[in-house]
Amino acid sequence: MTTATLTSKGQVTIPVQIRASLGLGAGDRIEFVELERGKFAIMPSNHPVQALKGMIRKPVKPVSIEDMSAAIAVQGAAAR
Q1: Domain residues for 59?
Q2: Around Cβ 48, how many Cβ atoms within 10 Å?
Q3: Domain total in the chain
Q4: Nearest-CA neighbor of 30 among 16, 15, 14?
Q5: Does 5 reside within a domain?
Q6: Higher-confidence residue: 78 or 21?
Q7: Higher model confidence: residue 15 or residue 57?
Q8: DSSP secondary structure letter of residue 3
Q9: pTM
């Protein structure tokens, strides 16, 4: 089992074997995902924006800028 030490500033150096396994490099972001109480997984958070393509399907009917502005105005007025 690989271990690391927490500094007084709350920083941890991720061991080289773990960084290599996760494909992490300088400047990459990581996420801490809670698996269960007291147990976390470290996940790389360096997904390209292209990975988001297709998550939202195109609307059946195109919406105009005017329609969007009207819907925002209605919702904004309702939130007050």
Answers
A1: 16-79
A2: 7
A3: 1
A4: 14
A5: no
A6: 21
A7: 15
A8: -
A9: 0.52
